[in-house]
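yo

u said u wanted the structure for the complex thing, so here. seqs first:
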Amino acid sequence: QSVLTQPPSVSGAPGQRVTISCTGSNSNIGAGFDVHWYQQLPGTVPKLLIYGNSNRPSGVPDRFSGSKSGTSTSLAITGLQAEDEADYYCQSYDNDLSAWVFGGGTKLTVL
Amino acid sequence: QVQLVESGGGLVKPGESLRLSCAASGFTFSDYYMTWIRQAPGGGLEWLSYISNIGNTMYYADSVKGRFTISRDNVKNLLFLQMNSLRAEDTAVYYCATATYSSGYYAGYWGQGTLVAVSS
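structre next:
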């Protein structure tokens, strides 16, 4: 059972917009800790996608965006492409656990 | 460019020990906090531990506290994870990563991972 809750799977057709939610609590996201997102393409190492709720590292397309509200955050992907098919994980810090916490991951399928 | 290369994984029996290493290059290692994260086969990501840039502060997940020890050598640009009393549930790919602060830390650069399998 992950501290951060993500939907197990989402899907969309090429060109569409999809969102992946990440819900926490008042001891992590709601306490003001930033949320970060990672993309793991099939058979590869996780890669930082979004840091500090909404910032993209150099090289990440602006089709990827993050937002935060209260105890929830979302990753949005616009103009969906076949190469976006991957697992996506959110991550934050939990004050009660004194630990980094991850969501369980969301598998994005491009139809 | 930033490079992190893990080594030391392998097959061990329950109760045995293993020491993972992570060789860092392409950045000023002593400026960065570092972290270990693992991923069980077919599973999600699990944070294990992180260490401050000068190695004087360490934090652990409850699942490994008392069994795993993180350390670093800033002269040789190496990060370590000493794993004792290994269990079957410790079977996973172990990644080292840089840890950068943004109201909480995140893993910026990742190594390719090293597989640890615990089985009798």
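The radius of gyration of chain B is 13 Å. The mean pLDDT of chain B is 97.
cya
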